[in-house]
């Protein structure tokens, strides 16, 4: 029986993405599948790198059960930089909101030094030791150029390489850069350039995984709002729905592109160097993004969402020809 090269794509989405993705990883191991390519962004990048270092799904789940908010971020203490008095006290502009915002000196709200220390303890200091035979891809955005950059321990085949793909010794900086949600967390500087979370432009990093030409790809979404979505009842609901719509649109666009390539590869194999790749999308059910849930790193949420991810993925895998 031929060996299937499997890629797993972990979407971003805060605590919900971390927990649901870990539950899916448990189901993948339950099914006896072993990934060859792990692609992740934001919280999904943490899962991808953890599994890439050789951590099994049970250890990943245990890690998330043990961590809480204090292990990942802390309030900023430099309150003296919060406001620029000279800008605040100058003559107000005609646009009052612009005047107030222009006087705020903070560009981000939470300190991620705890996360750096936590993951250094979990994954080790220095370059991550990626397990033999595994490829890990972590996506981030160059803040100055707006370029989506893919950091990886192994480049895809020459004919599938895209600008922005960089072979590096993956480390904690690359993980934190991918998870540096703008406004919430500080950008991460790597070789003199500032990087932030790619979730707003590439929340489901499917394309970089497909560049390695796997036989199959399991795509893990982080949000499962029902459609049509209900009207938001609060500002928190509105923020969550906005994030949901952005992520959902990007996911559908990437999936549709991949399916179109599959159709072309089957119908006219001589017209494209790409091959058909079996795709499976796994999404949570009835678990929409929420503004408060994004940073809700608690053992109770972890236990609930990992169990849900394991259950939903097990059902999907049972129907997937690749798993059978």
Count of individual domains: 1
For the largest beta-sheet, the strand count, sense and barrel status come to: 9 strands, mixed
Structural class by sheet pairing and helices = alpha/beta
Mean pLDDT: 89
Helix content class: 25-40%
What is the number of E strands?
A: 11
| Oligomer state of the chains in this structure | single chain
Taken from the alpha-carbon principal axes, the silhouette is globular
Helix-strand pattern, N to C?
EHEHHEHHEHEEEHEEHHEHEH
SS field, number of helical segments: 11
- C-alpha termini separation: 12 Å
How much of the sequence lies in strands comes to: 5-15%
- Low-pLDDT residue spans: none
Radius of gyration (CA) equals 20 Å
Descriptive account of the structure:
With 324 residues, this protein is of the alpha/beta class. It has one domain. The protein has eleven helices and eleven strands. The strands form two sheets. Strands 1, 2, 5, 6, 7, 8, 9, 10 and 11 form a nine-stranded mixed β-sheet that branches. The chain has a two-stranded antiparallel ribbon with strand order 3-4. Helix 1 links the parallel strand 1 and strand 2. Helix 3 runs antiparallel to helix 11. The longest helix is centred in the last third of the chain and has 33 residues. The radius of gyration is 20 Å and the shape is globular. It starts with 5 loop residues before the first strand and ends in a 6-residue tail after the last helix.
């Amino acid at each position: 029986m031929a060996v299937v090269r499997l890629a797993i794509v972990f979407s971003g989405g805060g605590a919900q993405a971390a927990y649901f993705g870990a539950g899916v990883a448990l189901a993948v191991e339950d099914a006896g599948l072993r990934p060859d390519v792990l692609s992740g962004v934001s919280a999904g990048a943490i899962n991808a790198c953890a599994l890439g270092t050789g951590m099994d799904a049970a250890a990943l789940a245990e890690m998330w059960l043990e961590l809480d908010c204090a292990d990942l971020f802390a309030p900023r203490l430099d309150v003296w930089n919060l406001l620029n008095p000279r800008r605040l006290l100058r003559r107000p502009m005609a646009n009052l909101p612009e005047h107030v915002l222009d006087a705020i000196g903070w560009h981000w709200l939470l300190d991620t030094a705890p996360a750096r220390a936590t993951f250094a303890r979990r994954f080790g200091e220095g370059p991550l030791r990626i397990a033999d035979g595994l490829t890990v891809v972590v996506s981030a955005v160059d803040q100055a150029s707006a370029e989506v950059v893919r950091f990886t321990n192994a480049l895809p085949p020459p004919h599938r390489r895209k600008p922005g793909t960089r072979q590096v010794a993956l480390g904690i900086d690359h993980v934190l850069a991918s998870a540096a949600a703008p406004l919430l967390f500080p950008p991460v500087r790597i070789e003199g350039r500032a990087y932030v979370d790619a979730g707003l432009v590439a929340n489901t990093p499917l394309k970089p995984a497909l560049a390695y030409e796997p036989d199959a790809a399991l795509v893990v979404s982080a949000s499962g709002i029902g459609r049509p979505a209900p009207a938001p009842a609060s500002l928190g609901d509105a923020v969550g729905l906005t994030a949901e719509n952005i992520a959902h649109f990007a996911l559908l666009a990437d999936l549709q592109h991949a399916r179109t390539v599959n159709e072309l590869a089957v119908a006219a194999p001589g017209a494209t160097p790409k091959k058909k790749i079996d795709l499976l999308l796994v999404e949570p059910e009835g678990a929409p993004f929420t503004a408060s849930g994004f940073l809700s790193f608690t053992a109770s949420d972890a236990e609930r969402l990992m169990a849900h991810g394991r259950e939903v993925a097990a059902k999907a895998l049972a129907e997937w020809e690749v798993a059978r």
